[in-house]
Amino acid sequence: MKKSEIRSKYKALRKQLSENDIEEMSLAVANKLITLPVWEKTYFHIFLPITEHNEVNTEFILHLLSGKDKEIIISKSDFETRNMTHFLLTDSTKIKKNEYNIPEPVNGIEVPSNKIEVVFIPLLAFDNNGHRVGYGKGFYDKFLAECKPETIKIGLSFFEAEELIEDAFESDVKLDYCVTPNEVYIF
């Protein structure tokens, strides 16, 4: 399948999920994450979910990171430049939804991309080769290209892998892992 078909398919599948499904599957994803060999790292980038799009609820992962005393980084998106600016999440960080319902920090301590060691990535779908399909705006492609090559990239998905994304480019930044409620994929 091509990216456009995959986008349609997984947006429709996500729409069918109940609040209870999302909570249960998000908790299962967080529990699977505990098994990954990433916990010696310090700087973790995480997305705050767009609840209107039924994304993985990252609250459980935030508790996990907090409990392990990690530095948590969240981003603000600039839709004109397609750039993301990253901020340390602290007790004083104010969060506000932007015009696209993305929860973002209003202010804070800026963190450069090259300091980030682990990135949790929202996605609609992924394939057995570690390619991913997002919403198609390219924010994460640009951001991941700015990270160090050894930065660990972890996709979070409610659904299992597609066999192949036909129109994935070799230049696309691949995932190192993708975690679903039932499976940990290693690429």
Automatic annotation (TrEMBL):
EC number(s) from the headed UniProt entry: 6.3.3.2
UniProt feature coiled coil, ranges: none
Keywords assigned by UniProt, alphabetized: ATP-binding, Ligase, Magnesium, Metal-binding, Nucleotide-binding
Record-listed substrate binding positions: I50, E55
Pfam families: 5-FTHF_cyc-lig
List of residues binding ATP: K3, S4, E5, I6, R7, R132, V133, G134, Y135, G136, K137, G138, F139, Y140
GO molecular function, one term: 5-formyltetrahydrofolate cyclo-ligase activity
Cofactor(s) essential for the protein: Mg(2+)
Catalytic reaction equation(s): (6S)-5-formyl-5,6,7,8-tetrahydrofolate + ATP = (6R)-5,10-methenyltetrahydrofolate + ADP + phosphate
One of the GO biological process terms: folic acid-containing compound biosynthetic process
NCBIfam families xrefs: MTHFS_bact
Family named by the database record: Belongs to the 5-formyltetrahydrofolate cyclo-ligase family.
Name the record gives this protein: 5-formyltetrahydrofolate cyclo-ligase
